[in-house]
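Example 5.3 — Glycosyl transferase
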Amino acid sequence: MKVILFYISSHGFGHITRVLARIESFIDTYPGKIYLSCGKSQISFAQKYLAKYSDKIIYNSITTDIGLINKKDSLEVDINNTQSSLIKFIDSWDLLINKELETIAYFDVDCIITDISPIGMIIGKLLGKKVIAISNFTWYNQYKHLNLPSKILNAYLDAESFIDEFWSYPLSLDLSHIKCSIKKVDFICRKFDVKKIDYLKRKYGKSIYISVGKSATIGAIPIHDFSGTVFITTGVTVIGNNLNVIELPEDTLDTHNYLAASIKAIIKAGWSTVSEAICANVPMTLLERPNILEDTHIIKSCKDLYNASSFKL
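Solution (predicted structure tokens):
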């Protein structure tokens, strides 16, 4: 039986949620199995979200990425910590990949899909299988912007040279360093539950959705000129009058439905949550992180194309 190998960045939850949406779009008709490799927390989330497909998905928890590490209780990148963690991660690649090759040794591999972990790229090269990358950026983009050392840049650039086809999401960063063919694909998000959204609107009335993702904690966000329900996710606190603040449990599987039920989304400018807001046609106010290339680009694009606003904490 054919198996598609997915290697998903273990940086935050945006990568895994958009990959879950991708898997949802074809798993019912794909005759083979899915192998999903990501971080422990992301795998746990995926197992619950895709529970009805447990017979079609093989899960494996490994460190697939480092991404960007924030300073404590902040959205600001801790460059020193990110750099040292990346060097340790790169030094572990040989051991990690050899162990992974043992795990998948008996699979009849169809292809490798990566968002946007270098591990999947290298595995594909070693297996001689097609590597499809799906993302709105590469880590080489991000790390070059932060002026990280050449050891890091070269390692990621080398891995990205193994990509055979790049599926580029809207709002992508410059991908001119990618030498393979580039295919433009549309926004994607997990399926909305219209009945759940209608129920939330009836029960809570006018609402605002606030999220900075599952991997960050920030200071209090002031809410002015609004009375009603505020849905918040982990790491968010709000200040304001006449607010019915509802903190969604960390294991909530359908935060996108709460976003879609709201009249405004105040969110970190991560691609996946922005895509959910655009797909649900919910106005956005985006939190600025000036040293993050991806966020700066997304905010500018959303202001130009979707009438979004932004603010700094």
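Remark. The chain has a mean pLDDT of 96.
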